[in-house]
Design brief:
By secondary structure, the chain is of the alpha+beta class. The chain is 36% helix and 20% strand.
Length: 409
C-alpha cells in the first residue's frame, strides 16, 4: 500500500499487541496512556520479568527476583500488582528456598517461575487497556508510519474472505478457516465497542465477511472477551453442554448428535485439505425456532470441532454449518435453510444473518486454577440477548448461575 496514492484507513488493520515490546515509541506512548488510567504497575512488572531472560549470573538473577518480589508482590508496596492470593502464594512457594541461596539451585529458570505472573498481567492489559489505547487520538495519529510493518499492523483479510458455500460441504474446520476466525477475534478498528466493564467487553461490526456465500452473505458478527472467575475445567463443561447453546442462541430447542468423526480418518479421506489441529469433529442436527418475523422452525446439520493447544493452554470450540450430504442423503439445502417470513420488508436481509448463529467460535485460555480467559465470536443476532443482559444488569448473575450449574453436566 503506497501512502502517496492511497489514503490511510486504520479501520482495515488489526493492531499487534506484541508491538509494544518491539518499538520504543509505541511502548512509551502505551506507558503514558497507562499512567492516565492509573495502571502502569502491571506493564512495568512484565518488563522487569523479561529482564530475567537477559541475565546470566546467579547473583544478578537472584537479586532481580528479590527486587520484583519486593516491588510488585509485597503487600502495601507502591507498585503492588492486583493478582489473586493463590497466584502470589504459588510463586512465593517456588522461590522461598532459592532466595536464601547465593547460586541458582532450581531446575526451572527464574523467568519460567515468573512466567505465570507475566501471562496474567499481559492478558489483563491486552483485554482491558489495549483496546482503549489503540483507539486513543495520540495512537491513531502516530501509527500511520507503521502501516507497511506487519509486526505492528496487518490488513484484515477477513473483510473480503473468499469462502463460498462449497467450503462448508466438508465436515471439519480447515487451517484457513481457523485463521479467518482468529483474525476476526483480533483487535481492529473494524470492531466498535458497545459495552465495556472490567473483565468484560463486547464489540460489534458492520462488515459483511462472507460476501461470496449464498446463504450467509448478509451475516454479520459480534464478539465478546471476558475474564471468568471459574476454573478451566468448569468453563469447558459449560461450553460443551446444552446450557451454552441455549445461552448463545435462545431459540435452540434440541441438538441430536449424529456422528463422531476421527480426525485421522478425515485426513485420509481429504488428503489435499489442511485440517486444523482438532481433537475430533462431530456432526449434529440442531433444531431451532427463530424469533419474529420468522414463524417457521428450522433444522440444520452442524459441524462441531474441538482442539486444545498444550503449548498455549488454549481450548478452541468451533460450531459451523455442514452443507454436505449426511450419510449419502441428498439434502435440499436451499429449502432446508429457507425461512417463511411474516414480514416481507427489508428486515428479511437482517434475519438471514441469523443463520450465522450456527457459525461461532469460543477460545478459552487457562490463567490459573480459578481464572479462565474467554473470547467468543458469534452472530449479530446474539446482540439482542447481550443487550438484555447488559441493560438489565443480569450478566454477572447469569454467568454465575450458568457456570455453577455446569457442574451437573
Amino acid at each position: 500500500m503506497k501512502r502517496s496514492s492511497v489514503k490511510f484507513d486504520i479501520s482495515v488493520y488489526t493492531i499487534e499487541f506484541k508491538s509494544i515490546f518491539l518499538y520504543k515509541d509505541i511502548q512509551q506512548q502505551f506507558v503514558e496512556f497507562l499512567e492516565t488510567e492509573y495502571n502502569q504497575e502491571p506493564f512495568f512488572a512484565v518488563l522487569e520479568i523479561n529482564e530475567l531472560n537477559e541475565l546470566t549470573e546467579s547473583e544478578s538473577i537472584i537479586k532481580k527476583c528479590k527486587e520484583i518480589v519486593k516491588k510488585y508482590l509485597t503487600i502495601g508496596s507502591d507498585f503492588e500488582v492486583n493478582i489473586s492470593q493463590e497466584t502470589k502464594d504459588n510463586l512465593m512457594s517456588s522461590l522461598k528456598k532459592q532466595l536464601e541461596e547465593k547460586e541458582w539451585i532450581l531446575e526451572e529458570t527464574a523467568y519460567e517461575i515468573f512466567y505465570p505472573l507475566k501471562r496474567i498481567l499481559l492478558l489483563e492489559l491486552c483485554a482491558d487497556n489495549w483496546p482503549r489505547f489503540v483507539r486513543s487520538k495520540n495512537f491513531i495519529k502516530m501509527i500511520e508510519k507503521y502501516s507497511e510493518n506487519t509486526k505492528v499492523m496487518k490488513v484484515i483479510t477477513a473483510l473480503k474472505y473468499p469462502f463460498k458455500d462449497e467450503h462448508y460441504e466438508k465436515p471439519f474446520v480447515t487451517t484457513s478457516e481457523m485463521s479467518f476466525l482468529n483474525e476476526l477475534l483480533a483487535e481492529s478498528f473494524a470492531w466498535e465497542p458497545i459495552y465495556r466493564k472490567k473483565h468484560f467487553s463486547v464489540y460489534q461490526t458492520q462488515m459483511r465477511f462472507l460476501p461470496e456465500s449464498k446463504y450467509f452473505s448478509h451475516a454479520k458478527s459480534l464478539k465478546l472477551h471476558a475474564t471468568l472467575p471459574f476454573s478451566f475445567e468448569k468453563v469447558i463443561r459449560f461450553f460443551l453442554s446444552m446450557d451454552y447453546f441455549k445461552f448463545s442462541d435462545p431459540s435452540v430447542t434440541n441438538i441430536d448428535i449424529r456422528e463422531n468423526l476421527k480426525i485421522v480418518d478425515l485426513g485420509k479421506k481429504y488428503p489435499e485439505d489442511s485440517i486444523a489441529n482438532q481433537v475430533y469433529s462431530i456432526i449434529g442436527e440442531v433444531c431451532v425456532q427463530p424469533p419474529f418475523p420468522v414463524h417457521t422452525s428450522r433444522k440444520s446439520i452442524d459441524c462441531f470441532c474441538i482442539s486444545f493447544d498444550n503449548e498455549t493452554q488454549t481450548f478452541t470450540f468451533v460450531r459451523r454449518p455442514y452443507l454436505g450430504d449426511y450419510k449419502g442423503q441428498d439434502i435440499d439445502w436451499t429449502k432446508k435453510l429457507g425461512f417463511d417470513f411474516i414480514d416481507k420488508s427489508n428486515v428479511k436481509k437482517n434475519v438471514e444473518g441469523y443463520i450465522l448463529a450456527v457459525m461461532n467460535m469460543v477460545k478459552l485460555e487457562i490463567i490459573n486454577s480459578e481464572i479462565t480467559r474467554m473470547s467468543l465470536l458469534t452472530s449479530l443476532i446474539f446482540q439482542l440477548f447481550i443487550n438484555y443482559l447488559l441493560f438489565s444488569g443480569r450478566s454477572k448473575r447469569l454467568f454465575t448461575i450458568r457456570f455453577c450449574d455446569s457442574n451437573r453436566c
